[in-house]
């Protein structure tokens, strides 16, 4: 009998209403016909973390990730409130938000010299995916720091390499090196003159 009300209970619990008596009273007003014992058990499970919160009250991981990746201030007021509730309910998500926003700031403002400090913070108490990302950065810390500090980029070269690979894939098994060379030069010439290839 409690199942239709678990989303509401979880949402109210996340909002800070943790008294089983108050929650029981609220769902009685919404049509709950059972006793208060299942409500007390459910709330006790939420407190102990032994009961999984109702899915209706928790946004999908994809939605939460999207909210975290957007710049601060870009969320709608309702989304900001929901993200705040999720952060309050889950310390791992709260820590992920802080680290993601700090890294975004390093990236946008070219503060590569602060990267090692960020990595040390991530190693201290980050959730496993963030920790894995931080360890990956350490594999070539000098290059990553340079990329986050210097104004130069290999983007143009990477773009050309990607274009050549695409042409090569289109011709797979059907042409010689000479034809590939000709198509690359032709694509380059068309690009210089602003003609779509």
Taken from the alpha-carbon principal axes, the silhouette is elongated
How many strands appear in the DSSP assignment?
0
Number of helices: 11
Major sheet: none
Which class of secondary structure composition applies to the elements? mainly alpha
What is the mean predicted local confidence, pLDDT? 83
Terminal residue distance: 64 Å
Residue stretches low in confidence (pLDDT < 50, at least 5 long) are none
Q: What fraction, in percent, of the residue positions are helical?
A: 55-70%
Give an account of the 3D structure.
By secondary structure, the chain is mostly helical. The protein is 69% helix and 0% strand. The protein contains eleven helices and no strands. The protein has helices at residues 6-15, 20-29, 37-48, 61-69, 77-89, 91-108, 115-125, 128-138, 141-149, 155-170, 177-192. Helix 6 (91-108) runs antiparallel to helix 7 (115-125). The longest helix has 18 residues, at 91-108. The model has no long low-confidence stretch (mean pLDDT 83).
């Amino acid at each position: 009998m409690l199942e239709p009300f678990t989303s509401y209970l979880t949402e109210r619990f996340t909002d800070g209403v943790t008294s089983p008596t108050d929650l029981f009273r609220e769902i009685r007003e919404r049509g709950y016909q059972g006793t208060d014992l299942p409500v007390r058990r459910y709330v006790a499970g939420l407190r102990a973390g032994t009961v999984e919160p109702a899915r209706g009250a928790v946004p999908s991981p994809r939605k939460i990730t999207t909210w975290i990746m957007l710049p601060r201030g870009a969320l709608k007021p309702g989304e900001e409130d929901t993200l705040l509730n999720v952060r309050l309910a889950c310390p791992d998500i709260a820590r992920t938000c802080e680290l993601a926003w700090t890294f975004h700031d390093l990236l946008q403002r070219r503060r590569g010299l602060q990267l090692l400090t960020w990595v040390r913070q991530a190693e201290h108490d980050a959730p496993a995916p963030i920790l894995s990302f931080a360890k990956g950065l350490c594999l070539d810390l000098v290059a990553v720091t340079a990329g986050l500090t210097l104004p130069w980029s290999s983007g143009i070269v990477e773009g050309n390499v990607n274009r050549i690979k695409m042409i090569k894939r289109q011709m797979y098994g059907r042409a010689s090196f000479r034809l590939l060379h000709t198509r690359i030069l032709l694509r380059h010439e068309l690009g210089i003159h602003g003609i779509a290839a």
